[in-house]
Design goal:
- This protein is an alpha/beta fold.
- It folds into 2 domains: 35 residues, no CATH class; 432 residues, Alkaline Phosphatase, subunit A.
- The chain contains 13 helices and 17 strands.
- Strand 13 and strand 14 form a beta hairpin.
- Helix 11 packs parallel to helix 12.
- It starts with a helix and ends in a 16-residue tail after the last strand.
Length: 484
Amino acid sequence: MNPIEQHFQEVTRRHFFKRGALGLGTAALASLLPTPPLAAATSMGGLPELPHFAPKAKRAIYLFMAGAPSQIDMFDHKPKMADWFDKDLPESIRQGQRLTTMTSGQDRFPLAPSKFSFQQYGDNGATISELLPFHARMVDDIAIVKSVHTEAINHDPAITYICTGHQLPGRASLGSWLSYGLGSQNENLPSFVVMTSTWSSKREAQALYNRLWGSGFLASKYQGVALRSQGDPVLFLSNPPGVDREMRRRTLDSLAQINQQTAEDYGDPETRARIAQYEMAFRMQSSVPDLTDLSKEPKHILDMYGPDVTKPGSFAASCLLARRMAERDVRFTQIFHRGWDQHGNVGGDLPLQCRDVDQASWALVQDLKQRGLLEDTLVIWGGEFGRTIYCQGNLTRENYGRDHHPKCFTIWMAGGGIKPGIVYGETDDFSYNIVENPVHIHDLNATILKCLGIDHRRLSYKYQGLDMRLTGVLDQNPVENIML
C-alpha cells in the first residue's frame, strides 16, 4: 500500500474519474469470473487485498477482564502449592524478575496457594475452579491457553500493549485495524463497538482510556464507538428538542456540502471521514435503538444469560448485546469488565467478579453456537497479565492478595478458526514461569488476525516513516496448534 497514492485517490477529481473508468472494466471482468473473490460481497470499505486467505471467522467478540484475573485461582491449578503455604518463593523460581513497587519492598514473598477447589472437566480433563461452574460446562467448546506472557508489569502500559500492540499511547487498536483492513459488513452500524460493563467487587478500578479502542494514526472513522448503558446508547444520537428527523437530514446535507468544499480545498482525508461519520450517526438513529431493545428476546434466552441480563450496563446485558451485534455482522465487539485488580482480599472480591462473568460468558458461547454463529464468530476472553503466587500484604488460609505477574497468564478462545476442547501451554509448579509452549501477546493478536483471514506481517500502515503493525517488528507467529 502506498499512502501517498491512497491520499490522492481520496481527494482529487482526476483520480475519481480515473477510478470510475477502471471500475467499469473491473466490473466487466468480475462478471466473467466463475466464483466471487474471498472478500464478502457485502463488505464495505477495507483494503482491496484483504482478506489474504479464506477466513475462518467473519467477526470477533473480545471479553476483556481489565485488571488481570488470577490464573492461579481460576484455571491454572497448582496442587503442590498446598504444601508450600507461607514458605518463601525460591529465588530459583523468581530468577531476578523485576517486581512492582507494591511488593518490591516486602521483606519476604510468602506463597499463597489458592483457597478454591478445582476439578477436571470435559474430554480434555481441563482443571477449572469452583468459581467458574458455567465455564466448567463448556470446556469442550473452548481452547484454554495457559502460557500467555507480556513484558509490561503495570496496568496502563500492559492494557495499552495488548489492545494496540505497543506500551506507549498513539497506536491503532485491534478493532481499528480490523475495521481498516476488512471494512464493515453492516452499513447501519459501526464495524467496531465497545461496551464497558459494571462490576461487583471493590469500587476502585483501573481507569480505561478511549485510546484502547482508538484509531491512533489511522483515520478516525476506524475508532470504536462506545455504547452507553444510561441515556442515549451513543452520545447525541437523539435529536434535540424542536428538531425532527427531516430537519436533521436537511442540516446534514447542508453540512456535507460545506465539508465537501473543504475537502476539495484542503485535501484532508479526515474531512471525508467526518462526512462519513455524520451519515453513520444518522443511520444509527434507527439501527441502534433496534439493536439495544431486548424486549423481544424470549424468556429462555434471558434466563440463559442469568438474572443480571435485565440490568442495563451489566456484563450479562453486554454479552447479550454482543450476540445481537454478531447477528447484525458487526465486525468487532469488545466488552471491558473492570475490577480484577486484587492486590488484597482475593477471597472476597474474586468470587464476585467471577459471578459477574461466568454464566454470561458461557451463555454467549452457547447462544452463538445454537444459532450457527459460533463457527464464524471468534470469541476471546482474557486480561492484560496474570497474578503472583506469592502474597501481597497479610496472608491467611482464607484470604490473601496477589501482585501483577506478566510472565504467565491464562486466556481462552472459542469459535471461528479455533480448535475446541484443548488446553495449550503449561507453567511450572508455582504458576510463575512458562515451561511449555509460550505465547506472547503479539502471537495472540497474530492468531486473532489469522482467524479473520489476515496475515499479520502484511497488514501495515506507513506512519512517520515506519511500516506500523499491530504485532510489532519481531518474528511473531500465530499459534497454529490451537487453530483448525
